[in-house]
User: Fold this.
Amino acid sequence: MRYLLLPILFVLTMPFTGQSQICIVNVSPQDTTICPGDSIAIFGYAAIVATGQNFDFDLGSLPPGWSATGGSAWGNPCGAGINGTPYYWASTSGGDVPTVGSPGFDVTCGGFLNFDMLFSLQGGAMPCEGPDEADEGVSLQYSTDGGITWIDIVYYSPGGFELPTNPGTSVVVASGPTPYTTWSSFSVPIPLGAFTTNTMFQWTQIYSTGPLFDNWGLDNIEIIGGPCNTAVISWDNGLTSTNSFWITPTSDTSFVANVYDTLGVFMCSSDTININVMQPTLTWELADTLYAYCPTDSLPAEVVNFANAIAPWDVEWSTGSTLNPTLLGTNGNGQDLIEFTVEITDGCDYVYYDTVMMLVNQTLAIDTLLSFPASACNPTGATSAFISGITDALGQPFYHWTGPGNTGTYNIDGTAIIDIPPGWYFFNVIDDVCEVSDSVYVDIENPPVAEFSALPTQGCAPLVVDFTNTSQNTDTYLWVYGDGTPNSTDTDPTHTFNISSNVM
Assistant:
């Protein structure tokens, strides 16, 4: 059995009637899928805090306790604000970083930062020229040590999107209108690290081209948060005043956290938490058939597009391979149909099976090898090959003869070889998909045949023997009498023997 702690945080707020308090409820996990038999921890956190303080620049100055650096203006230098009142307008001045910051607030129970912000359009006239480089945006930060250390909450890029922090690169990301080049309202949850009794917030532009460029504005800042008031969670599954619990569901289950104050007055509810118990519903894709055109082929096979199940997805092929993709080989036959099985196991240990068929169909073949004999004395032989089933979409197939023997001195690329001596010749053909080989013997045309008879073949010494030459296809002869006497080149010699001999 597995026990899961899934730190997925969901935040929902709902203002209390009269707007004097606000309800915060955090629930984790949300919409989680688990395996049968798994246990999962459900966490809930709720707080009721006072509504936030509102700050603007309608009086043409900073609110009390706030601070600013860089070129700061309060008014309407680049058109009307979101509600027609003066706003804070930033520019680089004297080398200072344009920044507007708050004093410390008690936000021990968390909350939200709400504000309106505008980036000028890139290329506008001073003082309404907007940022265009990736590092010229605005960072929203917090400090818990009196402003000594600042930590990024979110970075607003000139391209009109959010990042965790300033990328520090001068790559151009804005050249025209973006979501930030019109007044927009933002709402940012206060991060857990900022939950202290004295947390400061600031909006700062670390990089800019200079005092005539990269202008932006800020207005209508609301800090929602404060010290915690008592809140009571009541789960709709019957558990009351329990911030967390373990559950081992056997089927899909849903929960809602309802929040009440200490007087039992309903304040807010979380979204529904859905715990889905995984069933054997894995889907995947695997090719039905692999086509091999040579018995030496090894073809890749891969199970792809896993879906509708919990990872990891392990595979084991009937070849013993656990690789995906893997290579599947043939049985070495030119024509064959081979079935391979794959076993798939998902993250819940459900097992699935699939098969792929390999069709081996070698079409390349050497149909016939013809040989023409060579004379006994001259290289007048020849061979020729007839091939079928060639696949040559990629170019001309390769033909090669070699001989006599595999390491012979005759090496010719082509379907025929001529003017060759007798011996074994080997032929090889390669097309786009396969390679085949064969051999043929080039015989001798009318080869000489040595034959003779002797009369008598035995007797007393001295024994006179007459030899009758019956050889065929011959021109010259050499007789070896075997008794130490000189050899003879006669056609039908007569020889006297004094000892027994073997005549050749």
Remarks:
- Residues 9 and 437 are 68 Å apart (CA to CA).
- Residues 1-19 have pLDDT under 50 and may be disordered.
- The radius of gyration is 48 Å.
